[in-house]
Design goal:
single chain, alpha+beta, CPE0013-like fold, 2 domains, five-stranded mixed β-sheet, three-stranded antiparallel β-sheet, 10 strands, binds iron/sulfur cluster
């Protein structure tokens, strides 16, 4: 049974059927070479931009959204999530700031996708009961 891949390279959104037989991949439905390359990558080595959130202190926000600067392999996502779950940031954080350079040692950075300003209380944990 072929895998169905919707090409996202251009607005035409061709639906490409990819059939794997051993090492061979046959395609049906692609309209150009760019779509062919995309479909082969999707069935052999799918990658996505990884997005998540990281805990932050000293801001009115509890978490800040982050993403990788380029797509990473889907099989790297669990490792990525484990690393991010250990992270704690201090406000302020600017939009686009590199949170981890060379995230996963693959040359791809992890960046903030939102600004977090410092609140008036600095880094005092407001949830703490005195
Ligand atoms: S296969 Fe080619 S024409 Fe079709 S969506 Fe992909 S890039 Fe566009």
């Amino acid at each position: 049974m072929p895998d169905k891949v919707t090409c996202i390279i251009c607005p035409k959104s061709c639906v490409i059927e990819a059939t794997k037989e051993g090492e061979e991949i046959s395609l049906n439905g692609e309209s150009c070479n760019r779509g062919k390359k995309y479909a082969i990558l999707e069935v052999t080595d799918p990658r996505r931009i990884f997005t998540s959130t990281v805990l932050i202190k000293g801001s009115d926000l509890k978490v800040i959204p982050v993403r990788t600067t380029r797509p990473i392999r889907k099989n790297e996502w669990i490792n990525a999530k484990e690393l991010i779950d250990k992270l704690r940031l201090d406000a302020p954080v600017e939009f686009g700031k590199i949170i981890i350079s060379d995230f996963l040692e693959n040359g791809i950075d992890l960046i903030a996708t939102r600004e977090a300003t410092k609140n008036d209380t600095g880094n005092i944990d407001l949830s703490r009961k005195f």
